[in-house]
Amino acid sequence: MKRLVLFDLDGVLLHSRENMRQAWTVVLEKTAVNRPFEDYFALIGRPFKDIMALLGVTSEVQQIEKIYMTASFDFLAQATFFPGVRETLIQLRDMGVKMGVVTSKDLPRTKAVLAQLNIKFVSVQSPSDKFRGKPAPDHLLMAMAEAGEDPADSLFMGDMDTDWQAGCRAGIDYVHAGWGYGNPPSLTPVLASITDLPTFIL
Fold first, then answer.
1. Does residue 186 surpass a pLDDT of 90?
2. Do 157 and 8 touch, CB atoms closer than 8 A?
């Protein structure tokens, strides 16, 4: 049995597409950014500043991120947990499995979301100036170090290609959330529901 399960947040635990769309609409209204939401959404899974670079937005990125974050907080009620998330996390906890979160969402919003679950996570990793964001393996490695577990005893669940790349580079087994926002890489195990996870890790 896996001793540690690490989760991506958006698209795995949290259904936040509408929250992102509304926050991006505010960005379009208040800044010179003119890329449609679909372009932004296709790149989620990376830190915000990395997404901006890939979209060709190179000026006032910090201010744009602040506008996006503020709007996202305002529309936080539009983000809800996927069906079965709470029940599955409680089941894993009762099985003695350690859990952590490795996300590209900033720490303030991540904490606000996770506080609703009332579940203890041994590690919560968000973008920082000290480590590279996904698809780099840095935060997965940090999460395993904080949990005191080796990659062989750990599993990462994500929904974007960046998650899979990060898992491969960290040497951790990866499972794809079939209900998420991205298509699974070939030959990657896919779960249809998060409620299948406890059986999968046995």
1. yes
2. yes
